[in-house]
Amino acid sequence: MSVTDINLTRRRRHLVLAICSAGLLVVGLDATIVNIALPAIHRSLGSSLAGLQWTVDAYTLVLASLLILAGSTADRVGRKRVFQLGLVVFSVGSLLCALAPTEGALIAARVLQAIGGSMLSPVAMSIIRTVFVDPAERARAIGVYGAMFGLSIALGPVLGGILVDAVGWRAVFLVNVPVGALAVLAAHRFVPESRADHPRRIDPVGQVLVIVGLASLTYGIIEGPDHGWTSIDIVASLALAALALAVLIPYELRRREPLLELRWFRSAPFSGASAIALCAFAALGAFLFLNTLYLQDVRGLSPLRAGLCMLPMAAMVLIFAPLSGRLVGSRGPRPPLIAAGVALIAAVAMLTQLQADSSIAYVLIAYTVFGAGFGLVNPPITNTAVSGMPAAQAGVAAAVASTSRQVGLTLGVALAGAIADGSAVLNGGATTGFTAAIRPAWWMILGAVAAVLVLAIVSTTPWAEGTARRTAEAST
Predict the structure, then answer these.
(1) 249-271 as b/e: b if 16+ CB within 10 A
(2) Which residues, in sequence order, are CB contacts of 226 under 8 Å at separation 6+?
(3) Distance between CA 63 and CA 434 in Å, rounded?
(4) Per-residue pLDDT tens digits for 42-54
(5) What is the distance between the alpha carbons of residues 310 and 291, in angstroms, rounded to a whole number?
(6) CA atoms within 13 Å, Cβ hemisphere of 166
(7) CB 3.0 to 4.6 Å from 120: which of 86, 215, 245, 350, for a disulfide?
(8) What does pTM read for this prediction?
(9) H-helix or E-strand containing 205?
(10) What is the pLDDT of residues 93-102, one digit of tens each?
């Protein structure tokens, strides 16, 4: 079935949206739910700071590396088929995470989880893009979808805190298994099959270059503090990342059907949305990684209480993400993006002043404002990424936006750990050691969210809209 053949009832469209959102829910949860379990994993498996970073980043790194391949493969072989396969692989990986006896086994299982997860988020977005053909209805649907992604990211620490406190850290992975099984059955029954009329060819060279570039960059950043930034392996790793990028760009530009359609970045809204996603999710990844350790190791809170401290953030995402989707449908992406940038800057500016004895009210206000900003940012970048691109390439366009998010999460965690003093982070206790060690990381995050505001203003001007029209015309 091609993208033009789908004509479902309103009720069936909403069922499809719910199923796709459920698939996205588990992917988003596992990008952050593990954060609240990091201290428990550290005690159980004896993980180092770098080991904890890899527990988070092994997942987001593989997701970022495979999302575009998964999106283009789904356009070719069938979006429903790939979506269902992703749910199965993700559920198996989750089960293996829960059973992992060592840090290495846990990281390996996280890789398998991510392989399955890579088949879910871009494919779910392309399914929604093909099912909701009316632009206004699509914007609202993407608002709901974006709300689910943002909510899953924000709810991860809350749900994780409840599970770790009541059952143990392994429960944060086991919870995915029944959700995945139900989603597979529902997708088989209600999701229509679709594929692109003219899908792109597989680009193995481009895929290898993406994996090598992201993996070597992440390795260099995470392991740099331990090995030394001038050590041979770190210098070689970062050089390899630069070389992969230098080869990837001209190679992809020469291909008729590249893995990464660099020509789409001539659209200022599209490239702006991708850059905003990168910066916003880098801020989120670092925010969750640092605050999980702060709340438990410095303030001495249990996993449950630490998770509950994140509840205001999750609540704001729940409120503001659907509101942002409606604003995009009625007034375009500019108002919610600018409001998001302002809120995120205010929240992170507060966190740069965080102390071991800061009042809990101060901490919760910062989390609340951060949640409002993050809730506002996701729907407009999602809608911008897919709405202006050809419908036949919805999977690839959605995958680029999803890749930007996952790269952001990966780099946020990697950079936060690299900038902070690892010894002070893990052993800071209720002293000033931890907050002093992470203050440079907060300034890095402040720079990232300031870039969100600048990009929001520049990428939503009349000039930017003109570049989007010309890019769309050239892509058809």
Answers:
(1) eebbeebeebbbbbebbebbbbb
(2) 48, 50, 422
(3) 30
(4) 888 887 777 887 8
(5) 9
(6) 10
(7) 86
(8) 0.77
(9) helix 204-227
(10) 999 999 999 8
